[in-house]
Amino acid sequence: MTLATFYTYPIIQAPMAGGTANPKLSAAVSNAGGLGFLVAGYKTAEEMREEIKQTRKLTSSPFGVNLFVPSDDTIEPAILGDYAGRLENTAKRLAVSPGEARNDDDDWDNKLEVIIDEHIPVVSFTFGCPDSNVLDRLKKNGSYIIITVTSPQEAVKAAQAGANALCLQGIEAGGHRSTFQNNDDAEDFSLLPLLRLVRQQVNLPLIAAGGIMHGQDIAALLTAGAEAIQLGTAFLRCPESGAKQLHKQALKDNRFSSTTVTRAFTGRRARGITNDFILQYGDSAPTAYPFVHYMTKPIRKAAAEAGDMEAMALWAGQGYRLAQDLPAAEIVSQLVEQAQQALQGRKRL
Ligand SMILES: Cc1cc2nc3c(=O)[nH]c(=O)nc-3n(C[C@H](O)[C@H](O)[C@H](O)COP(=O)(O)O)c2cc1C
After folding, report:
1. Are 213 and 234 in contact (CB under 8 A)?
2. Were both Cys, which of 18, 87, 221, 342 would link to 226 (CB 3.0–4.6 Å)?
């Protein structure tokens, strides 16, 4: 089983939690010849199973499911209490209170059982690498395993654990950094050096992700040795995307002009459009995922209901200005055409 058996074109729609990736989006991408992804993150195992069933009604092509590996972060209650106190400022304005900080494993065991039960062809993991027993069990059940990595060290660990392929996430990427550890110890690699350095040490198919918005960039990364390309932000504005309307609008709103990697919303580093919330809380947010995610949840929900983009998590990659309001199938065919032209018309040195 090779990665190429799952698509006609090496274009993967990134798993995007929080409602963005859904059966409509992933089926549209898979039907267009790419590989669509569903997400397990923040859902129950049964909600995830329901989405798998819905997607199967919309496409007979393969699609993947992405899982968050549970975190073992611990945090002193006093630090969380201090952050809750600061959040009161925004919470009061939106007439809510910060949520209760807690850890959970995102229904991990039950989700693995659903993945086994439903014989999911492609399974990707983020925020870590499950141990070899888990990967062996899934592989024996017929799944192809992708581990998301952000450094050459993580790539070597994932290869040793038995991954079939790696998704390399550059610092340009929108959404959460998929570092195995939630700390500031590791270097933030841009996609091209990451691809080159990992290729030196690991002989697995490599998927490139982060800031890719155009077929010429796909051609460049294929030339540089990527087997496939994963794009998230490029699909955010599609009509099939379940991103909130305000999130879609923010991507083209001139009041915003940059993205920032921040722990402010969830306690884990993630790239989003720089808004007031990030400016106000980015420096003081504790390293505590998913504790902080649960603390800010009522604030983010109230902000969305009030039409307040300044207190929402507007996840987006560095290329977000280039996102287009086009059906997912058109995005895929545009990318394919651009990449094919670029590969044919390669400049000579
Ligand atoms: C809104 C949003 C949600 C995301 N959620 C997930 C997720 O649930 N799981 C995951 O592995 N990656 C997630 N990512 C990261 C993507 O897998 C990918 O690394 C990223 O989108 C690539 O960068 P780009 O957005 O610039 O294309 C998310 C990205 C965005 C923009």
Report:
1. yes
2. 221
The answer to whether residue 292 scores a pLDDT higher than 80 is: yes
Supply the mean pLDDT for the chain: 97
Which token pair is 265?
């919303």
- 39 C-alpha to center of ligand 1: Å? 10
- Domains of the chain, each with CATH number or no CATH: 3-70+105-243+324-344 (3.20.20.70), 73-104+257-313 (no CATH)
Q: Give ligand 1 pocket residues (Cβ under 6 A).
A: 14-18, 20, 39, 41, 66, 126, 148, 169, 172-175, 178, 209-212, 230-234, 315-317, 319
Q: Which of 11, 12, 13, 16 to mutate to test the pocket of ligand 1 (most atoms within 8 A of CB)?
A: 16
Residue 219's H or E segment, with its range, is helix 215-223
Q: How far is CA 317 from CA 69, 169, 173, 308, in A?
A: 22, 11, 5, 21
Rounded to two decimals, what is the model's pTM?
0.98
